[in-house]
Fold each of these.
Amino acid sequence: MNLFITGATGFIGGSLAEYLKSRGHAIRGLVRDDAKAQRLKARGIEPVRGDLDSTDALLAEARRADGVINAASSDHEKALQALIDGVRGSGKPLLHTSGSSVIGDDARGDSLSPNIFDEDTPFIVEPDKQARHALDDRVLATPGARGIVLCNTMIYGTGRGLGRDSVQIPPLVAQARKSGVVRVVGQGLNRWSNVHIDDVVTLYALALEKAPAGAFYFVENGEASYAEIGEAIARRLKLGPVRHWSVEEATREWGEGHARYSFGSNSRVRAKRARRELGWAPRHASVTDWIRDEMPVD
Ligand SMILES: NC(=O)c1ccc[n+]([C@@H]2O[C@H](COP(=O)([O-])OP(=O)(O)OC[C@H]3O[C@@H](n4cnc5c(N)ncnc54)[C@H](OP(=O)(O)O)[C@@H]3O)[C@@H](O)[C@H]2O)c1
């Protein structure tokens, strides 16, 4: 297939571009930087110069492609609408990358939520996440095309493309390396579901091939608390005991969005539908094993 991917220089989109290229697809990738455009080209990915506000280019690329993957942003309304308009009425797949902070709570690290969601469970969406949820629904309702949402949990592992680092564990590690002390929000009792990037890309490939229109999938294969993740980081970096930060202290280091919705919340889901409907069989099951045994430390 001829595929158009946004976020082709990033962690998820870069990994998808490499994997799908290895499966014989031709990839055009959105890129906003000349140097990165050259690097994509050298990897056999055709760069499309522009950014998420380049509505005309997004529309044209979505129209000419056989399938579209939005992996640049879960929240950019204007770009997503252009991609929806580009595939409208064509029967083509549009895969949208969402994130499970959409069902995150405000635990501030101090409680374990009993709420575990799957695709059949009614969601509880905090007011701050309503806009993301509404965009997911808009993709699912794409007229005359296969609008599909992949709702990713905490992705770990090393990216296959230009973007090597994910968005949750690397900032925790960077803070620990800088200060010599691993910090988590509150007591770190809160849990997040997680998934390895190599399993994420196989699910996108399956969804591209055979997911029906309007399908929403959680992307998950295991879960861990932030206390457990912090402990694994401390062991990997040979540092002392994990210490605790309030949301306010954590906000000064990572910003409020990360402190509250990534590091302080619970986000617990089960990816039932992808296994049942697409035969997805993820192979990596433990984020803490990966941190302790494989996470790059230089
Ligand atoms: N990683 C996870 O665990 C995870 C889980 C769930 C959801 N998500 C969501 O998935 C999306 C992608 O995540 P990621 O981990 O792949 O992030 P990332 O590594 O930071 O990649 C983002 C990609 O989007 C591109 N991009 C961002 N803003 C752009 C703009 N205005 N115009 C053009 N390109 C733009 C970046 O280009 P540059 O290279 O030029 O910066 C990069 O290629 C984010 O919305 C993230 O919140 C991530």
Amino acid sequence: MIVGQQKKFDEIWEMVKGFRKVMVLGCNTCIAVCHAGGDKEADALASMLKIKAANEKVSMDVSHGAIQRQCENEFFTPVLEDLAKYDLVLSIACGVGVNFLSARIGKTPVYPGVNTQFFGGVPKPGFFEELCGGCGSCVLNLTGGICPIARCSKSLMNGPCGGTNKGKCEVSQDIDCAWFLIVERMKQLGTLEKLFEVQPPRDWSGSFHGGPRRVVVEHLRDIEEKQ
Ligand code: SF4
Ligand code: SF4
């Protein structure tokens, strides 16, 4: 899932205080799971903005709502016309949602209420950890299912640096050394010898270093073109 955190309220207020008619729009998928931008958070944030506006004697009409996903047309189609009537949409989806809506809503600005951070898992309630960097060419088959790109502080591909210390990363004792985890996991799987195979130089062109990426699912595109 995509993980993010709601921006500090003071920062949000600075963004929105000049607008009269504001819609706080949540997204009920990833960002709702990490308690940053679902319908409950949209409701709470809208209430905070109303109170702040009243305290500051600023005339502001604040509404709130949420759709299931802010990254797909089908969820925006029923609400887009209505959203375009606001002076500002404060989206508390991830940055994908803000980009996606900005390209469709016309003259209404869409501002981000969330800082989008990473692709992660939820090992226990309220705890999110980065597990994948979206590199475009997955090597987890070679590293025991542990990502050296997202989980090693230096994204090292060839084994640990000299700072690895009793399973911890030199960057912080709170961070497990990814390469320690990789070695231990590969020992457990009986595949440690794979680490001695020399890999060809990695092609990073499929990562974000190669510019914005697109994925086309051919059979879905063919269906669309026939309609
Ligand atoms: S190797 Fe790439 S695709 Fe695979 S988990 Fe790591 S960042 Fe994600
Ligand atoms: S100590 Fe481990 S996780 Fe930290 S930078 Fe070095 S190899 Fe990467």
